[in-house]
Structures are given as structure tokens and as C-alpha cells.
Amino acid sequence: MDNIEQQVGDMFKASGDFANAIWAMVITYTFSVLGAIILLIVGWIVAAIVQRSIKNAFLKFDNVDRTLAGFFGNIARYGVLTIVIIMVLGQFGVQTASILAALGAAGLAIGLALQGTLQNIAAGIMLLVLRPFRVGEYISTGSIDGTVQEVGLFATELKTIDGLFRLAPNSTLWNVSITNYSRVSERMHELAIGIGYDDDLRQAIDILLDLAKNNENVLADPEPYAFVKELGDSAVVVAMRYWAPGAVWWKTTHVMTRDAKLAFDEAGISIPFPQVTLSSLDADDKPLEKTDETADKPAEKS
After folding, report:
1. How large a percentage of the chain has pLDDT more than 70?
2. pTM of the model
């Protein structure tokens, strides 16, 4: 009987110890869960505040693009959330040092795998900071040209002069020389036309200057300047340099070229084609005599 009572007592004691252990575990993990929930809520709010603050700080600078401001804001937000998640895992006894080491190794592997993509991102950031071109401007790099439609972190969208869509990786735009045709307000153009040697040179120069004077898009300051550029094989090249607003530069050059041709035709000034003078020897003509250099040259051995 005593043995039965002792066994029942041991059973109740073991049950009590188990219940106490379960209760202690529940209390411990309840506080851990509550702490984790509080950390997540506070971290989410702090991440949003940091994102908004950094974005607004970047937007205060005139030379910073909205895309760049949003990019750095998102980086700050995800950085805060990553720290919060590591702190939450620490609440449950997870070794955060090993997690940080694993994240570092994963980041290195991802960086090596996405080397080209990261290069485009770095180039996109530099393009958005330095702003060598903006949306609506016409640029050319020699191999890529068009009107900028959008500047992103990975690539830049352009529209070619014939209306085609072109997507250029940012790395191809950052590592080359860029010509921005829309950045300047005024541009110079040199109109060069070849006239015949028998035509009136002064009259041709006067016609070019009158065309520049009568065109409303040609600027009076700097003053148009006409000159003889070259004495060619078939023509005398007459040129004129004038300045026009950048917005109408293309149109002005086309109109000036057309009007110059019409004005020269009306004045009787010719624009000659390339000419070549050929001369031939009659059958009775004597062949050329050998020069001393040719006569003294030894015969080649066969």
C-alpha cells in the first residue's frame, strides 16, 4: 500500500514539474512573441519614417532625380527591416552572428553573379546624380542616339529620330562620351557650297549673308560670317557660319540649305559636279624618254 501511495505521489510530482516547465516555457515564449511583435511594429514604423525622411532630404537638392531619391529611400527602409528581423530572431535564441555571416556570404555570391546588373545600377546612380542628360533631351554617343524618355536604375529608354524605341543599359551610356544636343540654347552651323571658278565670288558671299539676314531664326549676335573655305579641284567652296536657337537649329539648317540653292540658281551661279580633265597622246606622238633613274636601274633577274 505504501508503495502505491509513493508511486502516485511521484506521478503527481512529475506532473507538477512538467506543468511548471510548460508554464515557464509558455511565459518565456509569450514574452518573446510579444517582444517580437512589438519589435516588428516599431521597426516597420521606423523604417517608413526613415524612408520618407531620406527621400525628402534628397528631393531638396535640385540636381537629384526622383528615381534616385526613391532608390536610396528604399535601401534605407529595407536596411532597417533587416536589422529588425535579426533582432526578432535574437528574441528566440537564434545565433545572429551565424545569420550575419550567412547573409554576408549570400551577398557576395549574389554580387558576383549579378556583376553586370550591379554595374548598370552604379552607372544609373551616377547618371541620375551628375545629370548629363534629362528626359526630353536629344543625345548621341556615336552608337546610340535618340530623345531620352526615361532614366532608370538599370537602363535608359530613348526614342530615335524615326520614332523607334531603344533601351540602352546604363553602363553603355556612362563609359562613353555623350553629346547632348538639347542642353545648349544656341548652336552654330557652317553652310558650305561649292561654286564654279568662273562665277562671281563676291555675289555668292553677298547672297549667303542676305539669306542669313532675312531668316528670323538666324541670330544677329554673333553676326553671320561668310568666307572662302577652300579652293577645290572642281569648285571654290564658299562657307557661312551662323548661330540659331537650339530648339529650331535643325529646321533652320534645312531651310538655309534649300534657300541657298534656289538663290544661286536664280543668280546664275553654278554648283559644279566634280570634274576630271583627261588628255591622250596621238599615234605620232613620241613615247616618254626614260629618266636617268630608270636607265640606271639594273634589270631584274628572272
Report:
1. 71
2. 0.57
